[in-house]
Design a protein that fits this description.
The chain has a single domain, classed as P-loop containing nucleotide triphosphate hydrolases (Rossmann fold). Helices cover 52% and strands 14% of the residues. By secondary structure, the chain is an alpha/beta fold. It contains 7 helices and 5 strands. Pathway: Metabolic intermediate biosynthesis; chorismate biosynthesis; chorismate from D-erythrose 4-phosphate and phosphoenolpyruvate: step 5/7.
Amino acid sequence: MILVLIGYMGSGKSSIGKKLAKKLNYDLIDLDDFIEEKEKATVKEIFENKGEIYFRKKEQAYLQELLSADKNIILSLGGGTPCFGDNMEQILKANNTLSIYLKASIPKLAKKLIKKKATRPLIAHIETEEALTEFIGKHLFERIPYYSKATHHVITDDKSKKEITKDVLKLL
């Protein structure tokens, strides 16, 4: 089985993915890390040197490769992955695949991300939590139609990582 974790940055895809992989004894693959390994460059370098279109084409190809793998995987996607090309449709029609949207509210995402903005190029330039909240709101407005197609939705607000992991495991 392939469990695909979908959600906005800061929603817990990586941390919940680690817990799920450990509990289920699955491999954990972060799509961005996979791309960096295959391309021998960071996502930032790929964007800077080859452009977003090149990155999105590679992202789509590597996603397809992973979705056709015949092993147990927790696949953590980048926040934008479901929103480009037909990626979300490919996830939904892939065999033996379950997609889970880790859904966090805008205020919770902003509170969490303001502390980590230096490590997130997309939001590093944003100065205040208020401005970050507005940015996330606009971004989510564009992404929700894709995220909401996921097979299951798990609300993450006010839950521990352990509780969220339990909620996901109940879906299996």
